Amino acid sequence: MKTIGVLTSGGDAPGMNAAIRAVVRAGIYNNLKVIGIERGYDGLINGKIKEMDLSSVADIIHRGGTILKTARCEEFKTEEGRKKALNVLNVFGIDGLVVIGGDGSFMGAQKLSQSGIQTIGIPGTIDNDLGYTDYTIGFDTAINTVLESISKLRDTSTSHGRANVIEVMGRHCGDIALYTGLAGGAESIIVPEVDFETGDVCEKLIRGKTRGKLHSIIMLAEGIGNAFELGKEIEGKTGIETKVTVLGHIQRGGNPTAFDRVFASKMGARAVELLLDGKSGRALGIHNNKIIDIDIHEALSKKKRFDEDMYRLAKILSI
Ligand code: ATP
């Protein structure tokens, strides 16, 4: 193997830059030529590539976003689109590729691997929605960003005796709401994995108010109804003034935490090792604090397990 490529695809996540840096530097350390592909599979199809050197990844380990930019690319889902991509890979002599992204990006990586390109996936997505790995790159940063917002909202809510509905990302996976709900001392956590009744949320708020509580936090994963309607309903049923905050893309930005940087650096370097070992179609992850690699097909078929114990604990502690 002489030349490898690296790209970021799907939603951006803090820590992707640390992973790119590790792939580039570990590649160069091992005498490989490393090519950066811009804008994910779209850039691959359209030949948006540049050779990376040591200084091209200087001063990025602490930055959110991705210096290679990212994109979603419908064309790559087609046979024809992937043929164009394979052609670009051949023309530039790229025989190994590291794909940093979520499950959709991994599906693309799997297809490239089946077409004979050695491909390794690194999980970069803030949602933590991949079943085979305990954490994905960006999740830790995202939950810390949410926690910071919770603390700020708490300050102002306490002053007014208000309740807060805070909507966070995680349309199909409630991990952001769950972790931040527990760490932020939320009264209620509403996630897609567990049915909820507005009546229960209201009852808890009233119990808290009777006990003299000055504020309440309700964490809501996006996509479960409308946060503003929920806020109105809670206010109507409890008589407690309820403010709604939708954190949105703020959760995607910011300097990656130490955890995300370390984890991304280890995975980037491991991806290069796997390519040098002739491996392909592998997905990197973290399990019990160790970096693992498993077959990408198996990784994609593992259903994400919701941590019911953590959910129960959050409920007990917010009694
Ligand atoms: P996030 O979790 O942040 O949404 P993701 O990687 O899951 O990240 P997607 O938009 O699902 O984001 O996928 C990113 C890209 O991967 C798509 O735009 C497409 O180019 C490619 N892709 C997705 N699914 C497939 C597929 N079945 N076959 C080939 N390529 C795919």
From TrEMBL:
Family matches, as Gene3D superfamilies: 3.40.50.450, Phosphofructokinase domain
Residues the entry annotates as binding substrate: T125, I126, D127, R162, M169, G170, R171, E222, K243, H249, I250, Q251, R252
Location within or outside the cell: Cytoplasm
Originating gene: pfkA
Regulation: Allosterically activated by ADP and other diphosphonucleosides, and allosterically inhibited by phosphoenolpyruvate.
Domain Phosphofructokinase positions: 4-275
Family according to the record: Belongs to the phosphofructokinase type A (PFKA) family. ATP-dependent PFK group I subfamily. Prokaryotic clade 'B1' sub-subfamily.
Annotated binding of ADP, by residue: R21, A22, V23, V24, R25, R154, G185, A186, E187, R211, K213, L214, H215
Entry-linked HAMAP family: Phosphofructokinase_I_B1
Protein name per the record: ATP-dependent 6-phosphofructokinase
Residues at which Mg(2+) binds: D103
GO biological process: canonical glycolysis; fructose 1,6-bisphosphate metabolic process; fructose 6-phosphate metabolic process
Pathway noted in the entry: Carbohydrate degradation; glycolysis; D-glyceraldehyde 3-phosphate and glycerone phosphate from D-glucose: step 3/4
Function: Catalyzes the phosphorylation of D-fructose 6-phosphate to fructose 1,6-bisphosphate by ATP, the first committing step of glycolysis.
Active-site residues, record numbering mapped to chain: D127 (proton acceptor)
